Amino acid sequence: xxxxxxxxxxxxxRADIFRYKVGRRYRYSDPIVSSMILAEHHEYLPRHLAEAxxxxxxxxxxxxxxxxxxxxxxxxxxxxxxKLLFSLELSIMAxxxxxxxxxxxxxxxxxxxxxxxxxxxxxxxxTRHESEVRQAEIHRLGIRASTAELPLGWFAATxxxxxxxxxxxxxxxxxxxxxxxx
Length: 182
What we know:
Layout: H1 2-13, E1 18-22, E2 25-29, H2 31-40, H3 46-54, H4 57-71, H5 78-98, H6 100-109, H7 118-126, H8 128-147, H9 152-158, H10 162-181
Antiparallel strand pairs: 1-2
Helix pairs in contact: 2-4, 3-4, 4-5, 5-7, 9-10
């Protein structure tokens, strides 16, 4: 009984949170490591999975080879390999959705990743690019706002009185017309 409890607690600490069935047994895999192996595969691209869904034989073979390499699953059939890649994709999407709010908070405020459980850490790892894209969009909008004409409503929302807003808007429009004439 003690061994069963020890195994149960040890399993919770592991990062092997992606579970898939092979025959009658379940295997566990770290989704981060599996996706990194898939990313480093010499032929596999994420579009191959979509092409395999439509029936492209070349894409199916590429997906099968990548799945066998990423999951060390030489004993799986071609169909099982494709199902395994689909289930990994669905698992990653569910992981990102389940921890979406947490990842947004970390992107805004930061956190100590050393104390995270493996599931939250994996969700954070998979959403890291979304935070970078959001940050780039914020910079783009800031640069665009400095070179574009702002509406009167923006000035009205940021000034105390409507007269101040109208005056500042007129100054802004004049400076924009001067810049455009240069």
